[in-house]
Structures are given as structure tokens and as C-alpha cells.
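Thread: quick sanity check before group meeting

JM: Hey all, I'm pulling together slides for Thursday and realized we never actually wrote out the predicted structure for the chain we discussed last week. Dropping the sequence here so it's in one place. If anyone has concerns about the input, flag it before I start.
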Amino acid sequence: MDAGEDGHIRTGTVWTATAHAITSIIGSGVLTLPWSVAQLGWIIGPIILFFFACVTYYTAILLSDCYRSPDLVNGRRNYTYIDAVRVCLGAKDVVLCGIVQYGVLWGSIIGYTIATAISMAALKRSICFHKNGHDATCEVSGNLYMIIYGAMEIVLSQCPSLEKVTWLSYIAATTSFAYSLIAAFLCVVKFATNHEFKGTLMGAKMGHGVSPPLRTWHAFQALGNIAFAYTYSQLLIEIQDTLKSPPPENKTMKKATSYSIGATTIFYVTLGCMGYVAFGNDAPGNILTGFYEPFWLIAIANLSVTIHLVGAYQVFAQPIYAVYEKVLASKWPTSSFLTKVYTIKFPCTNPWNFKFTLCTLVLRTMFVILTTLISMMFPFFNAVVGLLGSLAFWPLTVYYPVRMYMVQTKVERRSRKWMGLQILSMLCFVATLLSGIGSVADVIGSFKHAKLFHIEL
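JM (edit): ok, ran it. Output follows.
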């Protein structure tokens, strides 16, 4: 175990980092990919999938070199993404970056809560169709499932830190592969039974309620959905801070990044393209809601989604807990509310004694309750995913990693590398701007038609 120069014990390896990364990358966004490819068509859709994968991988490699400053191997540790921004760019960028980063993390958690409820509601409706036939009226509400999911997260929120939920990430990473494989398999089977190659070169066509503006908004929103599917960079530094050394943390993190993004890209391209060839331009916003048979396989897939998102919730929530608890501790260092540790002992299970402070018990519980209530009020999945992707991708995945890397490695202004990085940043800014326009338009449209506290399937 590595106690490090700061006295903090780190036990992470390339495999634990890969598990955390896969858990944070493969989330609810993967279920929107067939719909996203359907909006872009056979030419642009796969190209965009590979483009976002390459950009995410490259900027993640740049960001991993910002964990220690100023020296890449022996410099001072930056424990969080915000710490790296503060050291490399200064205090002026910290506030804006913090608002974006933690806002997107929170928004992702809201999206996960909605996605879990959709999966469980789809499972219940699948049971209804299995018993009563596909012509039966099987209306379900996702509110109960959101409440159950929230209750589970209240319990798990008492885990002290991200490093302590590694076991949850292993389970979540395994289940993410499970439901991605099942969804891809179901799409292959549907394609085989259709006996036709669906989809068009340029995506969804006008007509049948699809106007030219709506088609444009949906194409732009698809960019945000794909960007959200590659959400990762804002958690990279936090994951890297769990790694032991030697070898140097940046070297281990680069390996974990290549493994995790490589594996997820294979899944994304397979599922996105196979879902499109199976459903064509009628691909549903959540691909699993398009299947009801075989019943047992659909059940496994939806349960896998639920289990995965239980773990992903904590991977995204722990950095939020850490930052506000750190701020509170700095302002009131002697407060018993923050520092006094209480212990609940369970008979014959000494290692499993429950230790907590009133701060973690009360504030984390309130956070989960508030998140659940917001998810219940605005349960439109696709619009939320697209908006989050558009908000997160350029600033957190491209802009700040590129700027920090250029400062960290002293890239010469107007050099070939400097120009290349600037062009990359501008291209991604345009993609983010377009996806933001499309996602905002879809959110407004969803407000007009959606019912509060009524989930869409």
C-alpha cells in the first residue's frame, strides 16, 4: 500500500481505475445511441461515434499528466479536477469550472435516477405484456421505482469516499457490459427476423410528424447524447487519486483510459449501429424499451441497468459529497456536527461497524432526497441526457484539459502543437454549441407535452 507523501493510503491499480472509468463512462447514455445514430444516418452517425471516442481518449491522456504539478511524476498532487484547474490556471477559472463540473455530475445523477425508473417500469410493463398479451393496456408509473432507488442510494451514500466503493464499481462495470451485450444481441436478433437492412444514409426523414426544424433539433441533440455517453474526464483526476505508486500515477491512468475507452467504444459502435439497422428511423429513445420478448432476457437487461446505475450514482456523487464537506470543514473545523464520529456496532461483525458523522448522515441524505424529487418532477430522459452532454463535453472534456496541459508542459504559443490543440478545441466548441441548441429545443418541447411526476417510456 502507498501511504504517499501526504500520508494518505492509496491502493488503486490499473484494474480498479479501469473499473471506475467504465462505470463512469458506460451509463444511461449508451441506451440512447441507436436513436442518436438514427437522427444522423449511416454516414455521419458512426463517424461521430468514433470522433467523440478519439477526442475523449486524447484529452483524457492530456489530463492525466495534470495530476501532479509542476513535475509530472514527483510534483504536488492535485486531488480533484478543480485542484488541477486551480494550480494550472489560477483561481479565476475555479468558480466557473466548479459550477459546470459539479452541476453536470449532479445532472448525471438525475439522469441515472430517471433511467433506472424507466428500466424498472419497462420491466413491469414487460411482465404485463408477457401475462396478458401485447394488446393489453399496461400503463405503469416510475415514481415508486425512483423512491426505492433513492432509498438505496441514501444507504450507499454513507460510504466515506470513492476509494471505498471500488467493489461497487466492479459490480457496476460487469452489469454495464451485461446489458450492453444483451441490447446488442436483441438488436441482432431483430435484424435477422426483419430480413431487411433498415436506416438511411442521412438519418430520419421528414413527414409523420417530423418537421424540418424538429429533424434539425433532433440531429443536434444526437450530438449531445453521444457526448454524454463519453462523460468521463471530469472524474479522471478523482479516479487517478486512488492509484498507488510506483509506477507513476499518470502512466497507470493512461493504461486504464485506453482499456476503458477502447472497450466502451466497441460497445457503443456495435449497439448504436445494430440498433439502427434493427429499428431504422423508428429507434426508441431508450433501446431497451423497444423489446418485450424474450421476457427473461429483457428482465436480466433491465435489472443489469438498475444495478449498474446504483453503482454509477455513487461514482458521480462521492466527488460532490467530498467538495462540500471539505468546504464546511474548513469553515467550522471544530464543529461536532462535522467531526464527531458515531459508531453503530453490529454483533459478531466488527469489521462491518457503521461509522458516520451527523454531517454525512444528514446532508448526504438530504442531497439524495432532493435529487429524487427533481427526477420525479422532470422525468423526460432523452432531453436531459442531450442537455447534459452538450453542457459537459467542451468545457470539461476538451477546453480545460487542453489549457491545463499546455500550461503544465509549457507548449509554445503558435507552435504546431499549440495550433492543433486550438483547432481541436474550436471544433468541439462548435459541436457543443449545436448540441446545446438542439437539446434546449427538445427540453422546451418536452415541457409542453410531458406531465410532472409521470415518467415517459
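AS: nice. Strands lie at 68-69, 76-77, 342-344, 354-356. The first strand starts at residue 68 and ends at 69.
JM: adding both to the slides.
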